[in-house]
Amino acid sequence: MVDKKHLTNELANFYRNVKKEKGGSVGTQIRDLTKIDIGSGISLIVAVDSDGGIGPLEGDVVKCSAYQTGRFAMRVPLLELLASGATPVAAFDMLTVPMQPHGAEIVRGIRDELAEAGFSQNFPLSGSTEDNVPTNMTGIGTTIIGFVHDAELRPGTSRPGDVVLCIGTPKTGPEDKITLDDPEIISQQDFMHLRQIPTIHDILPVGSHGVLFETNEMARLAGLTIELAINPSINQKKSAGPATCVLISGTEKSIDIIKKNIKAPIFFIGRFKKKDK
Fold first, then answer.
1. Which H or E run contains 233?
2. Which of 76, 95, 99, 221 could staple 49 via S-S, CB 3.0–4.6 A?
3. Per-residue pLDDT averaged across 184-212, rounded?
């Protein structure tokens, strides 16, 4: 239980420090997230992402609907924030297209992606569009912020002996066609279920660096090393585009639980162990 009076005092101190430092030295970088300690063991977590050349416009390299662009644009920072253990409180979109007709469809996609994760149509969402300069290529930046208590922060919680699994298949455009109903990528429903499994310690959405890079990052934050599977069944260096797969670390029991409850493909990556002295 957080002492409200103590938290109020710490927030006041935080504000004074921000004013004094002019915003510097108040945040730290954890993976792709920014963590800002505001006191009483509570932190503000910020996740961001950007997409360019993906959409329905003439100059777009990867063709898809504006709606799908919105869905995948919000998916990445949303999964990153949720994977950290944080609870989202507001989201933002910055579009390089006018509101009509494509901007509105992108925003509808963003809203539906938030809804897939259980957030209502009243969830705070704001942003901006480019309604002055004509554009022929879709561009979008997305941001989502949330709060987390240090006791619930996942990054760095992997343990020696944990198995590392990849849930979903790495896919990226333009070489792969990625759709919202692709059974080979992790769904929001699968992801939300993973968050509820108590034998899972850390969760990390895979981005453009690929499975191997993110596995090493997960190990680094926990002060561990990874013993990789001898014959991996997926390309561990391939980009996972809009977080088409996620890594989890957890106990052996996690494997059977995941197999029974998750629809996406499951790949064994390796096992964490203590670093040699």
1. none
2. 76
3. 95
